[in-house]
User: What shape does this take?
Amino acid sequence: MLKWMNTAQGDPARHTRAHRIAFVPMLAALCLVGCAVPATSSAPPTPTPRLRVGLEPVAEGFTTPVTLVTPGDGSGRLFVVDQVGVIRVIANGTLLDEPFLDIHDRIVELSESYDERGLLGLAFHPAFAKNGRFFVYYSAPPHEGLSAGEWDHTTRVSEFAVSQDNPNRADPESERIVLAVDKPGYNYEAGQIAFGPDSYLYIAMGDSARHPDEEIGGHAQDTSSLLGKILRIDVDAGDPYGIPPNNPFAAGGGRAEVFAYGFRNPYRFSFDTRGEHTLFVGDVGHALMEEVDIVTRSGNYGWPIREGTTCFNRSNWTRPLDTCATSGSSGEALIDPVIVYRHSDGLSAVIGGMVYRGRALPDLRGYYLFGDWGRGQGRLFAARPPKSGTGPWAVEAIAIAYRNSQPELGQLLGFGQDADRELYILAKDPRSGPTGHSGWVYRIARP
Assistant: This one.
């Protein structure tokens, strides 16, 4: 996940942006094909009365809830992924006592003060109602043969099956490891997985480095690496998976699993449920900027040539270069984000959201809702494309109308969506790491 989640040891301000770095190659340190100059971007706007929502409590008692998924089987159930290695079920508005899946003993041991690793993603097969198959993304201990001085853990994407006796329980012994990727550092796991409208499985892989306080690694622009990428695989073909034939490097020139690249920490992504099923990716920034990208096949989204719309300076992270390349090493144009803003407090971190297609909030229908952690207090935003159809999207802050003695949002961790396309947010007390039971699930509702 993100280093900004560590606030257990006092003031979160002391956890620097250097702790939230994704690590990628600097293949275009020279201006080879053309130059870009840093753009001026402002911090997110302050809330106004125009856009207001309420937060309706749905369930509590989680440790670090990072995502919420519906199985698409007509049951109306909601499945909540907790970083500590547990998936819980909300059925008919009630959080069930028994977990759907508990693999806490298979994930890497988490630091009590802060950790980015853990159980981070869940995706139900499009035919889950018939075949009972689902997939998870988690951080496992490094496998035998890896040097402890060079490798921190192994990321796994695994398939499981639902229990034949109880639809609210999975069979923990059914695990089939689909993909395993060794990571040098604890940082920037990303972790989102989802099936796209093409029925292929999409996987967000953050970049990683052994010493994140000091290093900028060499992965996101390197198409022979799976790190710093959005991957796309076919879990219904091949052993352990197949490659979609139109993946950009299916015929060579890079890893065949790669769908798009040049990401730092694509922590959360989503597909619009209507229209062209646009893929939105929130990519957490490094030292200065946050961004949301509309991602297309074979796209290069710039890190670490650029951070947002600025030219990233590998030698001085807070002072952008005057110029930098506008294309990657193969001459492909770098794609601009549709949403970009500067940090307002040095601790911003974008949380990718979803296009709202529900009915409860007609004023927000069609907006892309996303968020930001901020300084210990989550923030919500709504964005729409410009009328011209091109250029940066207009962003408005959403004011939260708290009810009675309802606590403030706290640390925003992720978004979710139910079968009716209503949106949910997941949050926890910002003062704790992956311990305790301060995690909440809220439904975004009328104020």
